[in-house]
Amino acid sequence: MYLSFSLSWFIVYLFSFTIIPVLFASAAYDYDWVSRHLGARSPYDQDTGSSSDPILKEYDIKQMQIVSRHGTRFPNAGDKKDMIRVATTLASSKNDTVAWAKDFNPNDYPNDKFDQLTDNGEEEVYQIGLRMGKKYSQLRSEVSQVEQVKNIASNYPRTIRSGNAFIKGFFKESTIGSDIPLTTIDAEQDTTVHLTSNCPQYEKEVGKSPKEQMNAYIDKAFPPNAERLKKDLGVDLSPRDVFATLLTCAYEASIYHRVDTFCSILSKEDYIMSEYAFDVKYTNKYSYPHEINSLMACDLVKEIATDLDNAYQEKEDAPLISFKHGHSMSVLPLAARLGIHKDDFFLTADASQEQIDNRMFRTSKDDTYGSNIMFQLLNKKGTKEKFVRVLLSEVPTVLPGCDEEVCPYETFKKAVAPLLQCNREEICNGGNS
Question: Are 181 and 407 in contact (CB under 8 A)?
């Protein structure tokens, strides 16, 4: 009996030292979790979008407008420089945990593809379009001529390629086909998609503050994280190197689905803190702290409101569907103008931990690759009642000024009216309008 107990105990003991570490490793390298916590470098969450919309049981969609960000892209020159620096530092470690750092290949991120859409980024956007096309097939079936579709992109290769991929997916199974013309807007004339264009006041008010604010938070909060990695790996990593490691992890994961390299040495706390670092940067860059950020969306909101009103009045020239293929600087200023996910404090290095934990603005949800804001003009079945519904990356949201997600048209119109009292040209050139 004693022998039997000892043998059983030994098996359990052995199991604990062999299987459990594998389970922990599996959790640490889980792509699904990692990809949801990469801030503005997070891939689109296709599962959140789903393949059906319950609203269609009670309402018909009379018009749909979508403003979206491009798909996954390659890093820029500055990001690549940081990636190489971190990889070189980690490669000097004698800890076998980071032996993979010696195999880091900068050519995986070619210089001639800086900021360009990746192949999987194109597929990502195609899949979004394909799923949305099926989800809203009834509205899609009403498109009988290309003039009923407004299809616009900023004049950048990554947005043009994203736009074409989305349209190819959305109209794949339609009677009209996917050969929908894409209109590009040159930067010199763009006031509705690439929103920092033609706005000198933006640079004056915002300037370098987004990165400065982010670095202030990293310098204040990340020293313990850097010390932990230094102790574990025997290499000298600064607080900003920890964030650069996360950034490298983000590109490795979003482009190549690699989570067993740079991602593998980061703790859950590293991810959560880096998410906030991204949020500090992007809220300062395109959202609430600077009023100019929301005011840049003046013409965009006016165009959206006009197209909705034309559809409400059933004007023949009102588009059935409108697509604007853009950037973070398209989606976030629009969300800010509408008051979506507006916190009662500014995201800075000095925010309390409670504020940080409970914030609404999160780039991992609001500004992923492929993120979008959708406007639906709804008609309640069996009535003439019209409503507006706003969705953020396919998740319904209650617009400030509305009591619920399905907002009566007149209530929506009243809520948006103050947002139309602006002159973008004057604002962007230093005026007060």
Answer: no
